[in-house]
Amino acid sequence: MATSDHQPQEEPRAAPPPMTVKELVDSGAVGSVVPPEYRSRDQDHAAVEVEIPTVDFLLLREGDDRQRRKTIRELGRACEEWGFFMVVNHGVPIGIIDAMLDAARGFFDLPEAEKREYAGNHVLDPIRCGTSFNPAVEDVKYWRDYFKLIVHPVFTSPSKPPGFSEALLGYATCVRKMTMELLRGISEALGLEQHCMERELDLYNGVQLVAGNLYPPCPQPELAMGLPPHSDHGLLTVLLQNGVGGLQVKHGGSWVHVRPAPCSFLVNTGDHMEIFSNGRIKSVLHRAVVNSWATRMSIAVVQGPSLETCVRPTPLLVKGVDRRMFRGMKYRDYVEFQQKNRLEEKSVLDVLRSTGD
């Protein structure tokens, strides 16, 4: 009887999902040495400590005319000189803040198999979690696990752990109200009508993204990086930490280690603020460093334009001999481009820099 030399071929197996940092640490496999795939090229984590700009949100929202004008000037100066500031007297109840931190901690403590149900397939999936930034294209992994949730214009949330959705909705709603008020103040600081940014960028349908970040203790923090130097894609990012520091921002050519006041928020400007303002306000470079003694957790809320808005410099800030410094791009395309590639400083924004009108 004749036999065939052709054997049935096995279907290619999908690559296993990358092990999260928390999974790696909890397994005891790390020991006292950072695995080679996490060894960062940038091993200079030196930073100075200087006073960072502070904005009193209560005076911006409820101050008299003189107080409000002064606060708007301070807000504008912080954006133009730093791209970064601390917000105090923000009015977000401490109970809502604590509930969000507890909910994020509960999510990261879920069994790995349950978290992987939310891994997602696309960078704009409304619910997504993972590790590092984009392991598929990275030479070096980052000491960080994350979840990313799009909560506006349509609210989405994981169903686990219990109470997560309620905590997320309460927190995202409060932070969005605060962020919109800050954006109105920045519009006025730029010499524009306070609702100008809302109209031109369709902020009624603007994307609000909540990103939770987990940085477990690292045995050799001087060799690893939580996240490398980068700018954010949105207009503003509002950051909350669990009391463990690790954020550094670039200012005046030096890295500044940020130590926020209790019950405050940290806010940084993003790429689309730089585009909209025609370069008058720069997006700030920042990075996350890790430590060997405590788990750092942060929750970043990014406010951006609507996905379908083609963002370009507002004509109101392109006058006389000024030229348009950036080409327009749809916000959806910008986010996809950034999230699918390596996280490298302002590499995506640099693509849009214009050489002429």
Automatic annotation (TrEMBL):
Residues 203-305 form the Fe2OG dioxygenase domain. The keyword Oxidoreductase applies. Keywords: Iron, Metal-binding, Oxidoreductase. It comes from the Eukaryota. SUPFAM superfamilies: Clavaminate synthase-like. The keyword Lipoprotein does not apply. Residues 1-20 are annotated as: Disordered. Pfam families: 2OG-FeII_Oxy, DIOX_N. GO terms for molecular function: metal ion binding; oxidoreductase activity. InterPro entries: DIOX_N (IPR026992), IPNS-like_FE2OG_OXY (IPR044861), IPNS-like_sf (IPR027443), Oxoglu/Fe-dep_dioxygenase_dom (IPR005123), Plant_2OG-oxidoreductases (IPR050295). Belongs to the iron/ascorbate-dependent oxidoreductase family. This is Fe2OG dioxygenase domain-containing protein. It comes from Spirodela intermedia.
